[in-house]
Amino acid sequence: MKIMRLGDIGKEQPAVLASSANGNEEYFSLLPLTGDVDGAFLAGRGLAKVRAALDAGALPVLEGAAGLRIGAPVARPGAVVGIGMNYAAHAAESGSAPPEIPVVFLKPSNTVTGPYDLAPVPPHSMKYDWEVELGVVIGTEATYLQSVEEAKDCIAGYVTANDFSEREYQIPGAAGQWTKGKSLPGSSPLGPWLVPAEEIDGGNLALRSWVNGEPRQDSSTSGLIFDAATLVHHCSQYMRLEPGDVIITGTPEGVALSGRFPYLQPGDVVEVEVEGLGRQRQELYRASGAARAEQAPQAQLQSS
């Protein structure tokens, strides 16, 4: 089942895309179960309740759902935790050795957008980059976990993520800092849907990206240096992970930072996909003045 949030920005409603009685995928409303897909819903065994309601045929069909905007599949997370250089080949193209412990940074939760929303390029940016990533959604509070096995039980599910990054803000010179390069408005598109952890193998999923239809990244989560459960366990030693928080697990090789491809420009179209978790599409524009969220007039759902 595919957990989604549909509707205009700030007015999203919870839904699930699942097989109907006739065997076709159909949208069902989750309003009988919850007002939103948030931390309280996940912590309260919300995914299990959705599955039970689907089995019982107790959810109403959401009419007109295919024409609605698709928002991020979880309401604004309390924390978005980024992991850097978590694929050996990407570490190499970044000029670094593979890390021996996870490289952790934080992104503001206000960077989260829907998977098809228009994506702003900062006003003076010249080195804006894409990063397809597996996103891990936390379902149970994780603090000072004792083992990786315990961490597995804290994962609610997985999402597709794109970690847009401004490399000049992030890396070179005295002013270069990861937080500056990773915190820009609209830089964390999530979705289109959340798949429960027990329904998909997060450790063996293809990741791909395209710019203007041309392939860029083509890898697999099997290449992660630190897998999802290891990251949850590690991060829990340094912060409290709460239901609804998201860990984006790092990107494989094939980004502009490698020097093999040009950086993004206004008008470019970026697509990223994680197998089984759906494909995103962002059209870039040059931001000016006060940053604001922009949504595409209508988002076309693309399955993988």
What do you see in this structure?
- This protein is of the alpha+beta class and about 300 residues long.
- It is built from 7 helices and 18 strands.
- It has helices spanning about 40-45, 45-55, 90-95, 150, 165-170, 180, 230-235; strands at about 1-5, 15-20, 25-30, 80-85, 105, 110-115, 120, 130, 130-140, 155-160, 165, 190, 195, 205-210, 215-220, 245-250, 270-275, 280-285.
- The strands form 5 sheets. A 6-stranded mixed beta sheet has the order 5-4-16-9-10-13. It has a 5-stranded mixed beta sheet with strand order 7-18-17-14-15, with no helix packed on it.
- A hairpin with a 6-residue loop joins strand 1 (about 1-5) and strand 2.
- It is globular, with a radius of gyration of 18 Å.
- The two termini are about 15 Å apart.
- The mean pLDDT is about 95.
Any chance you could write out the topology, listing elements then pairs?
Layout: E1 2-6, E2 13-19, E3 25-29, H1 39-43, H2 46-55, E4 80-84, H3 88-93, E5 103-107, E6 112-113, E7 119-121, E8 128-129, E9 132-138, H4 148-152, E10 155-162, E11 165-166, H5 167-170, H6 178-182, E12 188-189, E13 195-196, E14 206-211, E15 214-220, H7 228-236, E16 246-248, E17 269-274, E18 278-286
Parallel strand pairs: 4-16, 6-12, 7-18
Antiparallel strand pairs: 1-2, 2-3, 4-5, 8-11, 9-10, 9-16, 10-13, 14-15, 14-17, 17-18
